[in-house]
Design a protein that fits this description.
This protein is an alpha+beta fold. The protein has one domain (26-123). It is built from two helices and five strands, in the order H-E-H-E-E-E-E. It has a five-stranded antiparallel beta sheet.
Length: 124
Amino acid sequence: MKNEVKTCLECGEPLKGRADKKFCDDQCRAAYNNKLNSDSYAEMRNINNVLRKNRRIMEGLVNKEGKAFVNKNKLIESGFSFKYFTHTHLTKKGTTYKICYDYGYLPVDNDMVMIVKWGKEMNN
């Protein structure tokens, strides 16, 4: 068996030390992993930006009681994306709210959407 010289996965420098070593130092390890994960982080960051924007839009529309009835087109014009939400909540009556962090929405007819500030009392 030939004695192969292992090299750093990031910079290609010969490795010294343990047989299972993959990187010459922490800087190369971090750089390698940052490159490896950059695409998935970018996608997650973009989705989180959309979710935060949706939340800001809903927060700006609700009244003091934490409710609003808004035209769906107004939400879309504000940049709201119905594609992204953090979770759903199914009520005992069978209605499904789509929740974005602590605000939820429910289409109530063809063009209107009810927005509510979501609280612990609403999880029943």
